[in-house]
């Protein structure tokens, strides 16, 4: 169950990262990269808090 949750979180963060990367290529704004790093940190923090 926990392994399944981890794989779902990893795949979600990959998809979100890819989407934000493509968005930053279109906009070419550093703000999007800042948002991406914030989202990644939040996902990792939330995952470790659940454990």
Class based on secondary structure composition and strand pairing = mainly alpha
Number of helices: 2
Note the beta-strand portion.
under 5%
Helicity, as a percent range:
over 70%
- Count of domains: 1
Nearest-integer average pLDDT? 80
Task: Work out the number of β strands.
Answer: 0
Order of helices and strands: HH
Sheet with the most strands?
Answer: none
What Rg do the Cα atoms give?
12 Å
| Poorly predicted regions | none
Shape: elongated
Terminal residue distance: 12 Å
How would you sum up this structure in a few lines?
The chain has 51 residues and is an all-alpha fold. The protein has helices spanning 2-27, 30-50. The longest helix has 26 residues, at 2-27.
Provide structural commentary:
The protein has 51 residues and is mainly α. The protein has one domain. 92% of the residues lie in helices and 0% in strands. The protein has two helices and no strands. The chain has helices at residues 2-27, 30-50. α1 (2-27) runs antiparallel to α2. The model has no long low-confidence stretch (mean pLDDT 80).
